[in-house]
């Protein structure tokens, strides 16, 4: 069932605050675009950064919050996040980065169905299906610092998962956070929020910040570019970013001044 869309006024009052919505034209445009996308059954459902910030603020348990922040900062699938170990995170790099095992892709997949051959079977005929790995930078420095502190505080072994829980447990954690948000009177634009919403939100957040589609494909771990294109389709609803169309006319005086500046700059270089 498609998540029901709540009214913009509810988001204004309870999730992001009137001043931000009224004063930030970029957010208004992003919100309008997302609401249009939510009316289509074949486009991803995602939250915008202010909504996620409020959602995270309703999570008072450090272990749970760090997991949800990790999903938001990396776009990892929930099972990929739960498989991450301290050894998979490199904090000494600038920026820090994490190596994720893309669980929907595997190296050396089985071709055909030879009856006597099993993956991971012992002997010379064995073919191991290993997860494809991808690297995602932790661009948010404060989050990287919190993740590092969390690992140092709660994780004893570098080769054990940072969050040793099942995906069902993680989903129940999120449900509890959403109940707390509801108790506080917070209403989000999507009636149903799951761990996978963080992944969609990560993808759209990167596209809003100009990340190239091919780069997004790599960061998301998509084998087929068609999986990445679903996010690009959202922008087809943008109608030139809500700015009243694409302008093709320019003031002649301004244009001449710009050309003169370029010409003067080129002359200085040649001299």
From TrEMBL:
Residues 42-244 form the Tyr recombinase domain. PROSITE patterns: TYR_RECOMBINASE. GO terms for molecular function: DNA binding. The active site is at 231 (o-(3'-phospho-dna)-tyrosine intermediate). Keywords: DNA integration, DNA recombination, Plasmid. InterPro entries: DNA_brk_join_enz (IPR011010), Integrase-like_cat_sf (IPR013762), Integrase_catalytic (IPR002104), Resolvase_Rsv (IPR016423), Tyrosine_recombinase_XerCD (IPR050090). GO terms for biological process: DNA integration; DNA recombination. Residues 111-130 are annotated as: Disordered. It comes from the Bacteria. Pfam families: Phage_integrase (PF00589). SUPFAM superfamilies: DNA breaking-rejoining enzymes. This is Phage integrase family protein.
